[in-house]
């Protein structure tokens, strides 16, 4: 039965487990791990209110994302419930699943219509049908829980600045950007190519976080005290940057500076951007052109981007304008019904890692 206290309803263990779909054993297990703390009546009966139910919703959402109870406990123990964050993740996950389901249904219907005419499906059509209609390639769950983890509030601790000296130096991001890590007095800073310097705050001697955006850095050594890699945790993804020496960082910076001054685009940027715009206008995702992270973002935004490009009509002219300070090539795309400014940047693997469009 439920108990009412003022305006809040409290559920006993039987009713709570029945309404949510959990066993009483699961409720006790979460309590043993310190994830929920139900009230007790004078007779020792457990009561579950709004706060406990919100935390149970949070636990179930993270279990749906594939996290173990040990991982959930490490993530949530001692922290306030972030129901808004969980709902945001669930919204993104369900929207992505719905979109992929709709794409799969469209492919199935097209295949059925073709077979009904007596024609057969090509190998390419079968491959795409197997990949999209069966929904086996999505890593949205992993990305979603990482976003959740990365967005949680961090607590700053003070560390001896001398211990941070092992982290200072230059690292090369997979997209080719140089990440300069510096110590100024007792403060720590990070600066990416073409971006302003931002301050880092310590969680411990190896893990740091930014306050300007929900992002964290992890420094790791390789058999020595000096950090050899820097992992950037942001947007649900993890990018590992390897240490390079100052001479190499200076050489790459000078090469980029020369590209910017002389307005020299990447040799494949115009062709790749043109291909991307055409495929997106037709409602397809050119995953083979994009990094894994960018492909996931493009998939999430595809309905909006496709509608925008379709409203613009045919692409009439694609003109190069300049190279931005971060190495991204800037183009102006003139369509039959309007103009967009586009940016495209390549990573070391030859795939597109940066892509954006804005009204010109």
UniProtKB/TrEMBL annotation:
Residues in coiled coil = none
Do you know which PROSITE patterns this protein is assigned to?
HTH_MERR_2
Gene Ontology terms, MF aspect: DNA binding; DNA-binding transcription factor activity
- Its name, as the record gives it, is DNA-binding transcriptional regulator, MerR family
Gene3D superfamilies to which the protein is assigned, alphabetical: 1.10.1660.10
Q: Which Pfam families match?
A: DUF3471, MerR_1
Q: Name the UniProt key words of this record, in alphabetical order.
A: DNA-binding, Repressor, Transcription, Transcription regulation
